[in-house]
Task: inverse folding
């Protein structure tokens, strides 16, 4: 084991790697509660999604640990799962749109990601997108999550005159959601491991004690059937011309999110080489893209690398054994389906808002001295929640970026790929709406 993972060479120990894996799992385990809750609103079977979430996360994380040998965990991505449900399935009307078609779009994006990972053009594609737009996309996904979390918590509600207004702030479920959010922030500030998961469970338990939510008959049981979602994806339906932009939205977000996470976590762990390159990048990208394909086959939204992996590296994790530990824990979590199925939406809503806070901080890194950089980034970020679509936000950002660079005579600063995508987005809006 030491020879395969090179544990001693990285100045670590088996015990340290395992403890780091446990730390990472506790930090990101909230996804096994949140993901089924979000995808269930798309009409998917909650129990099957729970199994798909755990198995897809275990597959991707084990592949990352055993193949790429990096201490990075994977699971269905926050923001992408919300886009899957609210932006694709329940979003703008489209004949025949369903969660099966949405899974088909996720599958196709995963296949494209695998192709990009194998070909030597992956770095060119990643580097072609302006940093300001990458930051805007990240923040926009956070804002997208925030409005969904605010609604699920009961803080906001539809209003006929102003579109959005105050919700029922005196409702006990809303009050519990507020308590959960405050508790989450406090626990994170106190460096409590598993802060998000603890806050979710705290709110859920209080809700069960007070009768707001029925308690599960048991906490541990055999995993639910995967049959309702297994191989239910509609690939041909996803090839509809109106869904091409959605396929690319899944691809772009996963690609940027993975690249950012790999760089960030490896940098914090001191794993980058002298030139700042990620070790075994090709294997890491293949692990991520393969997990997305497997996740779509099982019945869950896009699987991606988790920035929460930094919690494990902060605890000393430096090798793939950390990821292997996380993967095994996801498999063990399969037996806690009754608990996951009893978690109410008002308990997971604070997690959406908190993750939104983390993602929004990327806006601080934008160049605020250059209007041609911060303008498109802000447009991109704001368009996502206001159009309720990550794909539309990305499109608005690219179109705005290309337009302002053209008008100001600074086309030389823009990669041709950005211009091509901007034109394609314009054609899409003109012909398809």
Result:
């Amino acid at each position: 084991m030491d020879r395969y993972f090179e544990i001693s060479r990285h100045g670590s120990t088996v015990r340290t790697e395992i403890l780091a894996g446990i730390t990472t799992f506790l930090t990101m385990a909230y996804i096994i509660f949140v993901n089924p809750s979000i995808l269930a609103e798309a009409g998917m079977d909650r129990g099957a999604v729970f199994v798909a979430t755990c198995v897809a996360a275990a597959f991707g994380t084990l592949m990352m640990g055993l193949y790429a040998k990096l201490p990075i965990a994977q699971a269905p991505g926050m923001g992408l799962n919300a886009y899957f449900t609210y932006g694709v399935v329940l979003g703008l009307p489209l004949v025949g749109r369903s969660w099966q078609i949405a899974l088909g779009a996720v599958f196709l994006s995963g296949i494209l990601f695998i192709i990009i990972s194998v070909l030597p053009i992956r770095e060119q594609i990643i580097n072609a997108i302006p940093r300001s737009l990458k930051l805007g996309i990240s923040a926009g996904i956070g804002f997208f999550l925030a409005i969904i979390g605010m609604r699920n918590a009961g803080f906001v509600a539809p209003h006929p005159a102003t579109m959005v207004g105050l919700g029922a702030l005196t409702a006990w479920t809303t009050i519990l959601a507020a308590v959960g959010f405050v508790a989450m922030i406090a626990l994170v500030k106190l460096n409590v491991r598993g802060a998000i998961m603890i806050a979710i469970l705290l709110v859920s338990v209080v809700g069960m004690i007070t009768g707001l939510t029925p308690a599960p008959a048991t906490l541990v049981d055999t995993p639910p059937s995967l049959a309702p979602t297994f191989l239910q994806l509609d690939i041909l339906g996803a090839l509809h011309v109106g869904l091409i932009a959605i396929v690319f939205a899944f691809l772009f977000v996963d690609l940027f999110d993975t690249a950012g996470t790999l760089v960030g976590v490896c940098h914090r762990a001191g794993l980058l080489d002298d030139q700042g390159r990620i070790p075994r990048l090709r294997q890491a990208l293949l692990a991520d893209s393969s997990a997305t394909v497997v996740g779509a086959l099982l019945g869950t939204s896009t699987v991606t690398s988790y920035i929460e992996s930094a919690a494990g590296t902060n605890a000393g994790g430096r090798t793939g054994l950390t990821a292997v530990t996380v993967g095994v824990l996801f498999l063990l979590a399969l037996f806690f389906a009754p608990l996951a199925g009893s978690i109410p939406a008002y308990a997971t809503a604070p997690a959406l808002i908190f993750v939104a806070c983390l993602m929004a901080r990327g806006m601080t890194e934008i160049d605020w001295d250059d209007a041609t950089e911060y303008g498109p980034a802000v447009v991109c970020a704001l368009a996502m929640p206001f159009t309720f679509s990550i794909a539309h936000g990305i499109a608005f950002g690219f179109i705005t970026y290309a337009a302002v660079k053209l008008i100001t005579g600074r086309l030389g600063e823009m990669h041709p790929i950005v211009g091509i995508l901007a034109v394609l987005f314009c054609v899409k809006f003109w012909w398809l709406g």
